[in-house]
Amino acid sequence: MLVAALTATGLISWTNKPVPKKVAADRPNIIIILTDDMGFSDVACFGGNFVPTPNIDRIAQNGRKFTQYYSAAPICSPSRVGMLTGMNPARWNFSTYLDNRQHNKNAEQADFLDPSAPSIARIFKNAGYATGHFGKWHMGGGRDVKNAPGFENYGIDEHNSTYESPDPDPLLTATNWIWSDKDSIKRWDRTKYFVDKTLAFMQKHKGQPCFVNFWPDDVHTPWVPRKETEYTGKYPMNPEEEAAFKLVLKEYDVQIGRLLDGLKTMGLDKNTIVIFTSDNGPLPSFRGSRAMGLRGSKLSLYEGGTRMPFIIQWPGHVPAGTIDETSELSSTDLLPTLTKFAGVSLPVGYKGDGMDRGAALLGKPSLRGKDLFWEYGRNATGFAYPRPIDKSPNLAVRSGEWKLLMNNDGSDIQLYNILKDRKETTNEAANEPQKVAQLKEKLMAWWLTMPRLK
Predict the structure, then answer these.
(1) How confident is the model at residue 26 (pLDDT cuts 50, 70, 90)?
(2) What is the pLDDT of residue 230?
(3) Is the pLDDT of residue 17 over 80?
(4) What is the mean predicted confidence (pLDDT) over 215-233?
(5) pLDDT band at 339 (very low <50, low <70, confident <90, very high)
(6) CA dihedral 38, 91, 378, 415 (to 10 degrees)
(7) Can you say how many angstroms the Cα of residue 159 is from the centroid of all Cα atoms in its chain?
(8) Partner residues linked to 66 by β-bridges
(9) CA distance 291 to 46
(10) Cα angle at 382 between 379 and 387, to 5 degrees?
(11) Whole-number pLDDT of residue 9
(12) For residues 61 and 315, is the Cβ–Cβ distance under 8 A?
């Protein structure tokens, strides 16, 4: 069994014991805002010009912005697994989004995240934190997958989630689908609902540190804004048109402001780490405008699918109003970094793919010094998108200034100097045969160590 094998190799071990709440009381609260399908430049502080986003920008004004942050995958389910576990999602047989059992089987992936996998929420819970998850899950549950483990199996105390979870909130799921006009909480009010739940959770546990996954799904299609007086066109709107996106993004920013204001009202803003980022690239991308012209989109291993906006604020610790354009970060780095910030010990034997990047987050830029690897797709059955144009190879590695993409059969090799050519316009493979050979060997060696479902 995979779990037994990982335990035997020291990849997982859960010998850490819960500590008394009083020991953890002065530790920082942590809120990870994981936006669904937000492009690199959707928000104004990353160059977006769709609508003003003053509240999201406020996080950047009060904190630090990073321009070389990467998600663990170019699509939702594996990217979330990477963040939760601090490990490459391929290690847990995730390489695309979860759907019904037949789809998952065709894609050669699991139906849900193994509950014995490491979980950042469980680690914080065992250290005395109250843990909450408010928003999308998409790591098991929904459709015909009825046996997905509950949230408590991942160390989550309280939750309100959407259809793609083991325990959907009935106010959000009047029908057996992702959303419906019959839902008690309308689609345009989902983030407001999750903000309310998050603030109520933190008020309830005031005096105890809180760890919260705040993972809204408004920016994912379909975009269903409320009917506003400023909008005079046809209503309801096309749920994938730019006008609808702008209204949804505007409302999303308002709700992020409510979250920040709520923390301040409760006196929690000074001792709360707030992280704002996205799970994967945008789709539709409106001719690349949602990713600052980066090549690719959601479902692509080009930069537009994996390079995400990233902002962190932590008053008195993270220097305000600063930008880091040189430090490479990965979503897998959050687990070792945030536990270190909070003085929380990692489980004995834990060996993730992330690194402690605390120094960079606190204002000292540094190169990561450890390669980043991606997989999107193990066969041609479950990975036919995006189409009809510019489908990326299914494997990639970022090693310093270089990024190599290739298919797992060795075809379609592409090499880019990502610092000089972040839009990936010039394939340098023919000019750099030694670099190609080096990175191809690394990438294939990594991919061949990934487990396979039997």
Answers:
(1) confident
(2) 52
(3) no
(4) 80
(5) very high
(6) 70
(7) 18
(8) 310, 324
(9) 9
(10) 100
(11) 34
(12) no
Q: Which of 65, 68, 92, 64 is nearest to 79 (CA)?
A: 92
Tell me the per-residue pLDDT of 55-90, one tens digit each, with 9 for 90 and over. Answer: 999 999 999 999 999 999 999 999 999 999 999 999
Q: CATH 3.30.1120.10 occupies which residues in the chain? A: 373-448
**How far is it, in rounded angstroms, from Cα 241 to Cα 233?**
12
256-283 average pLDDT score = 98
Structural tokens at position 270 = 């000074």
Contacts of 287 (CB under 8 A, 6+ apart): none
The CATH fold assigned to 373-448 is Arylsulfatase, C-terminal domain (3.30.1120)
* 390 — pLDDT class (breaks 50, 70, 90): confident
Q: Which amino acid is at 276?
A: F
Q: Which pLDDT band holds residue 13 (cuts at 50, 70, 90)?
A: very low
Residue 277's SS3 state is: strand
Distance between CA atoms of residues 119 and 116, nearest Å: 9
* Beta-bridge mates of residue 142: 145
pLDDT tier for residue 379 given thresholds of 50, 70 and 90: confident
The CA-atom distances, in angstroms, between 151 and each of 100, 167, 173 are 20, 8, 17
* HSE-up of residue 8 (Cα within 13 Å, Cβ side): 5
DSSP letter string over 370-438? S-EEEE--SSSSS---S-SS-PPPSEEEEETTEEEEE-TTS-S-EEEETTT-TT-----TTT-HHHHHH
| pLDDT tens per residue across span 356-372 | 999 999 999 999 999 99
- Rounded CA-CA distance 339/355 in Å is 11
Retrieve residue 453's tokens.
Answer: 């479902």
For strands 402-406 and 158-161, give the pairing.
unpaired
Long-range contacts of 320-323 (CB under 8 A, 24+ apart): 320/61, 320/62, 320/63, 320/64, 321/60, 321/61, 321/62, 321/63, 322/63, 322/64, 322/65, 322/363, 323/64, 323/65, 323/66, 323/67
Superfamily grouping for domain 21-368:
Alkaline Phosphatase, subunit A (3.40.720.10)
List every span in the chain annotated with CATH 3.40.720.10. 21-368
- Name the pLDDT band for 383 (thresholds 50, 70, 90): low
Q: Which amino acid is at 330?
A: S
Inter-residue contact 164 to 138 (CB < 8 Å): yes
Q: Name residue 117's amino acid.
A: A
